[in-house]
Design a protein that fits this description.
mainly alpha
Protein backbone atom coordinates (compact mmCIF):
# COMPACT_ATOMS: atom_id res chain seq x y z
CA UNK A 1 0.00 0.00 0.00
CA UNK A 2 2.76 2.42 1.01
CA UNK A 3 4.81 1.40 -2.02
CA UNK A 4 1.84 2.04 -4.28
CA UNK A 5 1.30 5.50 -2.83
CA UNK A 6 5.00 6.26 -3.15
CA UNK A 7 4.96 5.14 -6.77
CA UNK A 8 1.90 7.25 -7.56
CA UNK A 9 3.43 10.27 -5.83
CA UNK A 10 6.68 9.82 -7.73
CA UNK A 11 4.84 9.58 -11.05
CA UNK A 12 2.82 12.69 -10.22
CA UNK A 13 5.93 14.66 -9.27
CA UNK A 14 7.76 13.55 -12.41
CA UNK A 15 4.73 14.44 -14.54
CA UNK A 16 4.57 17.88 -12.92
CA UNK A 17 8.29 18.38 -13.45
CA UNK A 18 8.03 17.38 -17.12
CA UNK A 19 5.05 19.69 -17.64
CA UNK A 20 6.90 22.47 -15.83
CA UNK A 21 10.01 22.02 -17.96
CA UNK A 22 7.87 21.96 -21.12
CA UNK A 23 6.10 25.16 -20.06
CA UNK A 24 9.41 26.83 -19.28
CA UNK A 25 10.74 25.72 -22.67
CA UNK A 26 7.65 26.99 -24.44
CA UNK A 27 7.85 30.29 -22.55
CA UNK A 28 11.51 30.69 -23.44
CA UNK A 29 10.76 29.94 -27.12
CA UNK A 30 7.87 32.46 -27.23
CA UNK A 31 10.01 35.09 -25.51
CA UNK A 32 12.85 34.59 -27.99
CA UNK A 33 10.42 34.79 -30.90
CA UNK A 34 8.94 37.99 -29.50
CA UNK A 35 12.39 39.52 -29.00
CA UNK A 36 13.32 38.54 -32.55
CA UNK A 37 10.10 40.11 -33.85
CA UNK A 38 10.76 43.33 -31.92
CA UNK A 39 14.31 43.35 -33.25
CA UNK A 40 13.10 43.02 -36.84
CA UNK A 41 10.49 45.70 -36.31
CA UNK A 42 13.10 48.01 -34.86
CA UNK A 43 15.47 47.30 -37.73
CA UNK A 44 12.77 47.89 -40.35
CA UNK A 45 11.74 51.12 -38.67
CA UNK A 46 15.35 52.26 -38.64
CA UNK A 47 15.81 51.33 -42.32
CA UNK A 48 12.59 53.09 -43.36
CA UNK A 49 13.58 56.17 -41.41
CA UNK A 50 16.96 56.21 -43.14
CA UNK A 51 15.32 55.74 -46.54
CA UNK A 52 12.87 58.61 -45.97
CA UNK A 53 15.79 60.80 -44.91
CA UNK A 54 17.79 59.85 -48.02
CA UNK A 55 14.85 60.32 -50.41
CA UNK A 56 14.10 63.72 -48.84
CA UNK A 57 17.70 64.86 -49.22
CA UNK A 58 17.86 63.79 -52.87
CA UNK A 59 14.50 65.34 -53.77
CA UNK A 60 15.38 68.63 -52.08
CA UNK A 61 18.66 68.88 -54.00
CA UNK A 62 17.15 67.94 -57.37
CA UNK A 63 14.15 70.28 -57.01
CA UNK A 64 16.46 73.12 -55.96
CA UNK A 65 18.57 72.56 -59.07
CA UNK A 66 15.52 72.42 -61.35
CA UNK A 67 14.15 75.68 -59.96
CA UNK A 68 17.51 77.42 -60.48
CA UNK A 69 17.62 76.06 -64.03
CA UNK A 70 14.22 77.62 -64.70
CA UNK A 71 15.53 80.98 -63.44
CA UNK A 72 18.56 80.63 -65.73
CA UNK A 73 16.28 79.92 -68.71
CA UNK A 74 14.00 82.89 -68.02
CA UNK A 75 16.96 85.26 -67.72
CA UNK A 76 18.53 83.65 -70.80
CA UNK A 77 15.40 84.28 -72.85
CA UNK A 78 15.38 87.91 -71.73
CA UNK A 79 19.07 88.31 -72.58
CA UNK A 80 18.58 86.65 -75.98
CA UNK A 81 15.61 88.88 -76.80
CA UNK A 82 17.72 92.01 -76.15
CA UNK A 83 20.92 90.75 -77.79
CA UNK A 84 22.32 92.01 -81.11
CA UNK A 85 21.63 89.67 -84.04
CA UNK A 86 25.18 88.34 -84.32
CA UNK A 87 25.06 87.23 -80.68
CA UNK A 88 21.72 85.51 -81.27
CA UNK A 89 23.23 83.64 -84.20
CA UNK A 90 26.20 82.52 -82.08
CA UNK A 91 23.87 81.55 -79.24
CA UNK A 92 22.10 79.07 -81.52
CA UNK A 93 25.39 77.18 -81.81
CA UNK A 94 25.85 76.81 -78.05
CA UNK A 95 25.55 73.26 -76.75
CA UNK A 96 26.63 73.64 -73.11
CA UNK A 97 26.56 76.04 -70.19
CA UNK A 98 30.31 76.54 -70.63
CA UNK A 99 29.91 77.73 -74.23
CA UNK A 100 27.03 79.97 -73.21
CA UNK A 101 29.09 81.44 -70.37
CA UNK A 102 31.94 82.29 -72.75
CA UNK A 103 29.49 83.92 -75.18
CA UNK A 104 27.88 85.98 -72.41
CA UNK A 105 31.27 87.11 -71.11
CA UNK A 106 32.23 88.17 -74.63
CA UNK A 107 28.92 89.96 -75.05
CA UNK A 108 29.27 91.79 -71.75
CA UNK A 109 32.77 93.04 -72.54
CA UNK A 110 31.73 94.06 -76.07
CA UNK A 111 28.77 96.21 -75.06
CA UNK A 112 29.01 99.98 -74.64
CA UNK A 113 28.79 100.82 -70.96
CA UNK A 114 28.02 104.43 -71.80
CA UNK A 115 24.72 103.55 -73.45
CA UNK A 116 21.67 103.12 -71.25
CA UNK A 117 20.27 100.39 -73.51
CA UNK A 118 23.50 98.41 -73.30
CA UNK A 119 23.71 98.93 -69.55
CA UNK A 120 20.33 97.21 -69.11
CA UNK A 121 21.52 94.25 -71.15
CA UNK A 122 24.84 94.15 -69.29
CA UNK A 123 22.95 93.94 -65.97
CA UNK A 124 20.84 91.05 -67.28
CA UNK A 125 23.91 89.26 -68.67
CA UNK A 126 25.85 89.66 -65.42
CA UNK A 127 22.87 88.33 -63.46
CA UNK A 128 22.58 85.43 -65.90
CA UNK A 129 26.27 84.57 -65.56
CA UNK A 130 25.89 84.50 -61.79
CA UNK A 131 22.80 82.25 -62.05
CA UNK A 132 24.60 79.86 -64.40
CA UNK A 133 27.43 79.58 -61.88
CA UNK A 134 24.91 78.85 -59.10
CA UNK A 135 23.15 76.27 -61.28
CA UNK A 136 26.44 74.42 -61.80
CA UNK A 137 27.05 74.31 -58.06
CA UNK A 138 23.52 73.04 -57.42
CA UNK A 139 23.88 70.46 -60.18
CA UNK A 140 27.02 69.15 -58.47
CA UNK A 141 25.29 69.08 -55.08
CA UNK A 142 22.30 67.21 -56.50
CA UNK A 143 24.51 64.66 -58.24
CA UNK A 144 26.45 64.17 -55.01
CA UNK A 145 23.20 63.61 -53.06
CA UNK A 146 21.95 61.08 -55.64
CA UNK A 147 25.20 59.10 -55.69
CA UNK A 148 25.80 59.27 -51.92
CA UNK A 149 22.30 57.92 -51.21
CA UNK A 150 22.23 55.38 -54.06
CA UNK A 151 22.00 52.40 -51.66
CA UNK A 152 19.07 53.85 -49.71
CA UNK A 153 16.92 55.25 -52.53
CA UNK A 154 17.09 52.16 -54.77
CA UNK A 155 17.74 51.70 -58.48
CA UNK A 156 14.39 52.95 -59.81
CA UNK A 157 14.42 56.20 -57.87
CA UNK A 158 18.12 56.67 -58.62
CA UNK A 159 17.42 56.45 -62.36
CA UNK A 160 14.42 58.77 -62.08
CA UNK A 161 16.42 61.42 -60.26
CA UNK A 162 19.39 61.04 -62.61
CA UNK A 163 17.07 61.54 -65.56
CA UNK A 164 15.68 64.69 -64.01
CA UNK A 165 19.19 66.11 -63.86
CA UNK A 166 19.38 66.15 -67.66
CA UNK A 167 17.15 69.19 -68.20
CA UNK A 168 19.78 71.69 -69.37
CA UNK A 169 19.39 71.03 -73.10
CA UNK A 170 15.62 71.54 -72.96
CA UNK A 171 15.94 74.89 -71.23
CA UNK A 172 18.83 75.88 -73.51
CA UNK A 173 16.55 75.32 -76.53
CA UNK A 174 14.05 77.72 -74.94
CA UNK A 175 16.79 80.35 -74.74
CA UNK A 176 17.93 79.75 -78.32
CA UNK A 177 14.38 80.17 -79.63
CA UNK A 178 13.61 83.05 -77.24
CA UNK A 179 10.59 81.10 -76.00
CA UNK A 180 9.56 82.22 -72.54
CA UNK A 181 6.29 80.26 -72.63
CA UNK A 182 8.17 77.04 -73.32
CA UNK A 183 10.27 77.65 -70.20
CA UNK A 184 7.13 77.75 -68.07
CA UNK A 185 5.70 74.68 -69.82
CA UNK A 186 8.93 72.71 -69.42
CA UNK A 187 9.10 73.52 -65.72
CA UNK A 188 5.42 72.64 -65.31
CA UNK A 189 6.13 69.24 -66.88
CA UNK A 190 8.94 68.78 -64.38
CA UNK A 191 6.66 69.62 -61.45
CA UNK A 192 3.86 67.40 -62.77
CA UNK A 193 6.19 64.40 -63.01
CA UNK A 194 7.66 64.83 -59.56
CA UNK A 195 7.72 61.91 -57.16
CA UNK A 196 7.34 63.09 -53.58
CA UNK A 197 8.58 61.26 -50.49
CA UNK A 198 5.19 59.83 -49.48
CA UNK A 199 4.49 58.56 -53.02
CA UNK A 200 7.90 56.94 -53.21
CA UNK A 201 7.49 55.19 -49.85
CA UNK A 202 4.05 53.89 -50.86
CA UNK A 203 5.49 52.53 -54.10
CA UNK A 204 8.24 50.73 -52.21
CA UNK A 205 5.85 49.15 -49.73
Amino acid sequence: MVESLTHDLTVTIVDKLIIGVMMLGAGYYVQKKFESFKGRQGFETSVNSKRVEAVSAVLASVVDYEYTLKEVALLGVEAAARSPEHYKATLKECTSSTEMTLLLQSMSSGLDRNKEKDLELIAIVDDLLQKISVSREKHSLAEEAINKNHFWIGREFYLEMSDRMNKWNGFLDCIKHVDKDRVAALYHETISNMTDVSTFMRQQS
